[in-house]
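[Automated response] Your request has been received and processed.

Submitted sequence:
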Amino acid sequence: MKQAILVFVGGGFGSVARYLVSKIFNNTSNGIPYGTFLANILGSLFIGIILGMALKNESLSTNQTLLLATGFCGGFTTFSTFAYENHVFLKNGDFVSFALYAIASFTIALLAVFFGMYLISE
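Generated structure:
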């Protein structure tokens, strides 16, 4: 039960942080979801750092990893919003924005995880 509460608390903080990033960075005038993109990239970097720390010399406990990686990063990043935003691009016939957003999100997020883990391994 304690672990579920840690995930709950971390997820709450992550969700609020994502909301704030989206409010600040999403562009409602042209529909470009910079806030979602930024949250997903930063969350990927964070999870790389967190899991890198957890693996390296076991510097984070299981509970700390659950709070930060599963909870905070899980609440901070948002695949469902990313999927919806891509749906909107396709529905509006904006295939260029769809392709750029989808490819950039997947590629940069994956690289951010690797970079986060690399930062910790050095």
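Summary generated for your ticket: Residues 2-121 form one domain. The helical segments are 2-25, 34-55, 62-76, 79-91, 95-121.
If you did not submit this request, please reply to this message.
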